[in-house]
Amino acid sequence: MAKLDGAKVLVIGGASGVGFAVAAAALGAGAQVVVGSSQAGRIEAAARALGGGAVGRTVDVKDEASVAAFFEAAGAFDHLVFTAGDWGHMFGPTRELDVEASKARMEVRFWGAARAAKYASREIAKDGSITLTGGMLAHRPMPGAPLTTASAHTTEGLAMGLARDLAPVRVNAVCLGLILSEQVQGMGEGAIKGFTANLPLPRGGTVEEAAEAYLYLMRNTYVTGQVIRVDGGGSLV
Ligand SMILES: NC(=O)c1ccc[n+]([C@@H]2O[C@H](COP(=O)([O-])OP(=O)(O)OC[C@H]3O[C@@H](n4cnc5c(N)ncnc54)[C@H](OP(=O)(O)O)[C@@H]3O)[C@@H](O)[C@H]2O)c1
Is 221 in the pocket of ligand 1 (CB under 6 A)? Predict the structure, then answer.
């Protein structure tokens, strides 16, 4: 198992939610942490809130030059965690599909992850790791959201493909069920209950529970090309 003590961990999407919790857990394990996200005020506030020498840097994963500059500034590092995600929707009836708007929805979660992998691969330690983030709609499709399901699969496919292409760097993904980040809490209690009442663990997960999966994937030096589900058992029902 790799020790995170002294390791350099980059968290793109670390301004809030799951990424912030991963950054906090990595700091707790002794890592040097750099958090990145697109809004300067938010990422600087996050770095201050994390403390422990955490550094905040602005990066817009929709912009290749911005991603290149982020990794150039970071220099050599050990682990990349990618939790960046926007929350525009890809929901709606297929017969009214807006193809152009749907393409745009892939810019952060899929193309952003691909851009990050490209520049990360130039600086990452050979025994390092990259962990991407997907969602349970990949495995539990619902009416009105075929493109969200397809999009969530692209993340897992990217992780598997990169695991072959970038080896011995390890690449994995975490597939999240409903995790109670600030963003999700904004949905309100009724909506959250609607999504979670029938789960084997009938509640939303905490960001700390989600973060544990990323810490595991950074530490376990014999795991690559895998997807870990943190979903309260959602894939069983
Ligand atoms: N929470 C859940 O239940 C759940 C379930 C399934 C999947 N997911 C996925 O898991 C990821 C994390 O979820 P979360 O709940 O922690 O979300 P969150 O709190 O909204 O975190 C997403 C982060 O991404 C950053 N970001 C957005 N656009 C960016 C861009 N263009 N470049 C760089 N950073 C950008 C945001 O910061 P800035 O605004 O400063 O850029 C924010 O810090 C997301 O991709 C989400 O889709 C979450």
Answer: no
